[in-house]
Automatic annotation (TrEMBL):
<dbReference type="Pfam" id="PF00795">
    <property type="entry name" value="CN_hydrolase"/>
</dbReference>
<keyword id="KW-0012">Acyltransferase</keyword>
<dbReference type="GO" id="GO:0016746">
    <property type="term" value="F:acyltransferase activity"/>
</dbReference>
<dbReference type="GO" id="GO:0050126">
    <property type="term" value="F:N-carbamoylputrescine amidase activity"/>
</dbReference>
<dbReference type="InterPro" id="IPR003010">
    <property type="entry name" value="C-N_Hydrolase"/>
</dbReference>
<keyword id="KW-0808">Transferase</keyword>
<keyword id="KW-0378">Hydrolase</keyword>
<dbReference type="GO" id="GO:0033388">
    <property type="term" value="P:putrescine biosynthetic process from arginine"/>
</dbReference>
<feature type="domain" description="CN hydrolase">
    <location>
        <begin position="5"/>
        <end position="265"/>
    </location>
</feature>
<protein>
    <submittedName>
        <fullName>Acyltransferase</fullName>
    </submittedName>
</protein>
<dbReference type="InterPro" id="IPR050345">
    <property type="entry name" value="Aliph_Amidase/BUP"/>
</dbReference>
<dbReference type="InterPro" id="IPR036526">
    <property type="entry name" value="C-N_Hydrolase_sf"/>
</dbReference>
């Protein structure tokens, strides 16, 4: 595998016009590919508005099969441009059975693999348990022509266990398509705490596992169709961190951005030699980690 990997991230604001959202994504993919990106990562549920602010059965009509229209579209684009694309789709697995699924399209247009979101939130404005069945594919890296990708999705980014298992199975990168933002009534101080915690948590995954982390968030305000809240202001701030948690690139919080990062994959080996966390893990003492809680 090559040492340097030029990676493109696309931070986009979406509207209710799904066709326009998708066309702008295609244009943005072409832009970063023209700048040399070989791996291109999109945000969570990138074809539509973030529909989980309410619970509406009609929304299930947005779901699609895999393979399906989106994998065909982005697969053909990946083949045309000779790039690997990490997508994030609303998967219809069977009638009444849906997942939040990341699909990786390889340079030949084929589906290299997929990952079904494992951790599903259920918070005000993030009613994902209504729509998504928890993933049942485990934490399995996806082999591609640019490397072995540890793809997870959004809420997964708060859990060190998922990142660790991906790393233990040989992932060379950790990738998080994301949709996260502020609720309108949050104070300025609370907004800062939330965003900072989001960045710190993922940088910690990079440090603890000696791996680069790619996190791509959406941006812009999306109203709450029920008017129960003021909607979500997605905070953008997409970033790429190196294996010591160092920020390689970072997008703004208030505008769209197409960015390129040069990721040195050899650094993971170098960092793990000076910070040998895998060597020093006390696997004989961790059995309790598989329990829900360690009651007295």
């Amino acid at each position: 595998m090559k040492t340097m990997l030029k990676t493109g991230i696309i931070q986009q604001s979406n509207t209710a016009n799904n066709a326009d959202n998708t066309q702008r994504l295609v244009n943005n993919i072409r832009e970063v590919a023209a700048k040399g990106a070989e791996l291109i990562v999109l945000q969570e549920l990138h074809n539509s508005l973030y529909f989980c602010q309410t619970e509406e059965t009609d929304v299930f009509d947005l779901a699609e099969s895999i393979p399906g229209p989106s994998t065909d579209k982005f697969g053909n684009l990946a083949k045309e441009l000779g790039v690997v694309i990490v997508t994030s789709l609303f998967e219809k697995r069977a009638p009444g059975l849906y997942h939040n699924t990341a699909v990786v399209l390889d340079k030949d247009g084929s589906i290299a693999g997929k990952y079904r979101k494992m951790h599903i939130p259920d918070d005000p404005a993030y009613y994902e348990k209504f729509y998504f069945t928890p993933g049942d594919m485990g934490f399995e890296p996806i082999n591609t022509s640019v490397g072995r990708l540890g793809v997870l999705v959004c809420w997964d980014q708060w859990y060190p266990e998922g990142a660790r298992l991906m790393a233990m199975k040989g992932a060379e990168l950790l990738i998080y398509p994301t949709a996260i933002g502020w609720e309108s009534t949050d104070t300025t101080e609370e907004k800062a705490r939330q965003k900072d915690a989001w960045v710190v948590s993922q940088r910690a995954h990079a440090v603890a596992n000696g791996l680069p982390v790619i996190s791509v968030n959406r941006v812009g305000h999306e109203p709450d169709p029920s008017n129960a809240t003021g909607g979500i202001q997605f905070w953008g701030n997409s970033f790429v961190a190196g294996p010591q948690g160092e920020i390689l690139i970072e997008a703004p919080t208030d505008m769209e951005a197409n960015l390129i990062a040069d990721i040195d994959l050899k650094r993971s080996e170098d960092v793990r030699r000076i910070w040998p966390f895998f060597r020093d893990r006390r696997i004989d003492a961790y059995s309790g980690i598989t329990k829900r809680f360690l009651d007295e």
